[in-house]
Fold ABC transporter ATP-binding protein.
Amino acid sequence: MTLLLGVEGVTKAYPGVVANSDVSFQISEGEIHALLGENGAGKSTLVKMIYGLVKPDSGRMTLRGQPYTPAKPAEARRQGVAMVFQHFSLFEALNVAENVALGMENPPPMKALAGRIREVSEEYGLPLDPSRMVGDLSAGERQRVEIIRCLLQDPKLLIMDEPTSVLTPQEVEILFKTLRQLASEGTAILYISHKLEEIRSLCDEATILRRGKVVATCTPRDRTAREMAELMVGTVLTPPVRAGRTKGDVALEVSGLSVASPIPFGTALKAVSFTVRQGEVLGIAGVAGNGQDELLLALSGELRSQPEAVKIAGVAMGDTGPNDRRRAGLVAAPEERLGHAAAPDMSLVENALLSGVVRQGLTARGFIDWAATEAFAAGIVKAFDVRTPGTHVAARALSGGNLQKFVVGRELSQTPSVIVINQPTWGVDAAAAAAIRQAILDRASGGAAVVVISQDLDELLEIADDFAALNGGRLTPTRPVDGLTVDEIGLMMGGTHGMEVAHHG
Ligand SMILES: Nc1ncnc2c1ncn2[C@@H]1O[C@H](COP(=O)(O)OP(=O)(O)OP(=O)(O)O)[C@@H](O)[C@H]1O
């Protein structure tokens, strides 16, 4: 195969950490290449250099044998390098074609563009109506907008950063078909993911990073997921264990919870009802945008409801705010780490204070007890293996997965009686995900009632006792996890979201 991209001895340092150290690897045309590594291993930094967002300190890159030094993403795109990010940069109040036009240097007239979008979406089995408002689209459909925007530039290298975290199992299959088709036409794909089984089924080669260095390369098909995870962390892994648990009294009771969404294009909750006992883990699945964020807000107290709609240990608290609920024993970790769960420019110590102040006794006589706060933050960093130069570092300087470990650790460290957590291991590597799941199970064994909202079905099947799915703001009846199949769950989540027609012929 013809060599497309060569990366030779690339190094990039940030204050206190070498994010990439003498990294070399190659991708050929038509190759699907995985980039693997623990949280903070340097994967995002590496692809940001390839996409022109970050400049290497040293080393060199070549594209089709020529020196390649993109100073900005527009230059990378001009040379055939495209990227689909974890977070979509779309305008909800504009339609699909208008959004695509915004990302183009010289967009054609709207009508011609809509026609091109239709062609590309049919050719690659990614159904998408150019005239629909982005605000009305599911997460999977929004991702298709981004992918089609890239495909219209006829990329030679397509970079994808954890693309499947927002998709149902059925949508993942469809995406993989599209990626395989692109590869068969000669497009190279650089694929970042923590989902190792998916990597085994999709990728031809893998480069594994650990603490900024290339530590191994492998052919994913020839390895087990566990072998790859062990190459990433350099040690042997143990899967989480469910200790026997006794269920106690009802700790959280939600009945007929209906609230309008405070989020633009959000989803109102419609008569949501469930109960969780002490020692019990309820898993709530759903494709993003079906009321998960609203449910978390309504349980945390950021969104108020009728008093009787949310009862904590039998006390009606639907009309109370977050601090009252924290005092009553409920902690909550929202999905969005930067901005919602953590203040980006504040240090980890300050961020520990934000949510720990009520339950951890971090004030004395009206003053902040900084020594206690620092000790609390340092304890979280240690217990949850948060990789950071120190607790003085700003939240935004942590890699995505490490910030996630910090945010989850901060909530679980407050001896809660009710835990509500949205996407607990989002973007977290396999070893750290296992540690977070174990910590959740341990809290449940200790008598906490847990609600885990997640799009990762394997995760829910691993830790939840009971299962329900959110669909358009309604919650399905709760079912015991034992005996449920992934297909049944997919249907509870709303199946394929109109994707049945994809890839016919
Ligand atoms: N803008 C920045 N300022 C300071 N440090 C940074 C910055 N960006 C990344 N880092 C540090 O560089 C290292 C590599 O981070 P990077 O985001 O590349 O990791 P990653 O492998 O993509 O991790 P994850 O799987 O968690 O997304 C981390 O230690 C991170 O804290």
Q: What stands out?
A: The radius of gyration is 23 Å. The CA atoms of residues 93 and 135 lie 6 Å apart. Residues 250-492 form a domain with the Rossmann fold fold (CATH 3.40.50.300).
